[in-house]
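Here is an idea for our session: we take a single protein and study its fold together. Once you have written the record down, we can walk along the chain together.
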Amino acid sequence: MTTLVERDRPVGDLLRQWRERRRMSQLELAGRAEVSARHVSFLETGRSRPTRAMLLRLSDQLDIPLRERNSLLLAAGFAPAYPEHALGDVPMAAVARAIGQILTALLPSPAVVVDRHWHLVDGNAAVALLTDGCAAELLEPPVNVLRLSLHPEGMAPRIVNLGQWRAHLLHRLGHQIAATGDPVLGDLTAELAAYPCADAVDTDPGELVVPIRIRTDAGELAFLSTTTVFGTPLDVTVAELAIETFHAADAGTAEVLRRFGD
């Protein structure tokens, strides 16, 4: 939802904020959008009023999320360009079916669908391998999967490489905040960083792939996670969904997953 603060801010201020977040000069943005740097300057200072088409063109070059593109349009007095539906709405029926089919196809690997704030939207049966033993209140909707992962009453006590995994998640959140400017993610980062961790590290370990190693009744399991997003979405909700899949990182984990799937 667009905030009142965003609606009250001049569209030029919002454009400048996004350009600076992307670390682009006015000249670079103008070149990409095929307009003059003077025109970009006039739009940011309010000396020129942007057209709907120009806002969409600049948004594309700045890789602005669909929700924030709607905010820009509203700030300029235009109607939003991108709809937002709940997964239970009729127009989203095909998307909801596809998500269900994907989650089933990913079995026996655990997989979850999360929204932009890492709230659990859906998951397959294998997720129980990861969440077994977590406090019941952390599993009550809305479930935040990052909170569930790092909370001392969640998965954290069973994560063997908690310091490494925690640093990886916080580093990932930092990148997401830099890309979106979402204050909710900033609050979530502060909360997660405050959770106790005996082997906490302050920086990302810098590895290309960071596994999660977790103790379970079936022994220690190791997973590598991958993230899948929907290509070229035109709905705000779909654009903000991601499928996080945990693949077996060793032969022992693969065998446990195989037995789970039988």
